[in-house]
């Protein structure tokens, strides 16, 4: 039985592939698994039924083989651990690939989301311009460190891995894209990720579903 993924009925990202389920859809496409989708409205996300799957009323949630799982990183790791191709075979390489997954969601993404929320929710505050400059500088430092770690390799840890899925999904967010011209190696890295057939298939599917749902 294919996994069931809970997703937005109409995503606020307008089909740009920035919603949290994108990493999960991409990982499943990489391993050749087609999920069943459970589209939910914002009201349905807050129901007891969905919160039994996702305690914070968010997306995605994953259900398969008696397991219900939440948090996109945890879901991608579960997929990678149960299908070949998304984690290195040797234990040290596997550990490093998983470390890159944590780095994406714990080191880079928080400051990126802070920048997004500041611009969106505090745009009229007198301190916002100065705060945005500070957040841009923090993102720049993170990107510079990431570029140094990537060096001239095509992927973060040998072959393409779940670590690249999580990291590229963060790099796709607008605050990162706006600064990638300063880091050509990361811009090329992002382009390589988005050029993968599995990414293209997952992106096209979520865009088509958004277009159908939004009329």
Structural class based on helices, strands and sheet pairing: alpha+beta
Q: Quick check: average pLDDT? A: 94
Number of strands: 4
Specify the helix fraction band: 55-70%
Q: Please compute the radius of gyration using only Cα atoms.
A: 17 Å
CATH topology of the largest domain: Glutathione S-transferase Yfyf (Class Pi), Chain A, domain 2
**What would CATH call the class of the largest domain?**
Mainly Alpha
Terminus-to-terminus distance: 30 Å
Count of discrete structural domains = 2
Main beta sheet, described? Answer: 4 strands, mixed
Please state the overall shape, judged from the principal axes of the Cα atoms.
Answer: globular
- Uncertain spans, ≥5 residues at pLDDT below 50? none
Number of H- or I-type helical stretches: 10
Q: What order do the SSEs take from the amino end to the carboxyl end, as H and E?
A: EHEHHEEHHHHHHH
What oligomeric state is this? single chain
Write structural notes for this entry.
It is a single chain. The chain contains ten helices and four strands. The chain is α+β, with helices and mostly antiparallel strands. The chain has two domains: 4-85 and 198-208, Glutaredoxin (3-Layer(aba) Sandwich); 91-195, Glutathione S-transferase Yfyf (Class Pi), Chain A, domain 2 (Up-down Bundle), CATH 1.20.1050.10. The chain has a four-stranded mixed β-sheet. Helix 1 (21-30) links the parallel strand 1 and strand 2 (36-40). Helix 1 runs antiparallel to helix 7 (162-171). The chain starts with a strand and ends with a helix. 33% of the residues are buried.
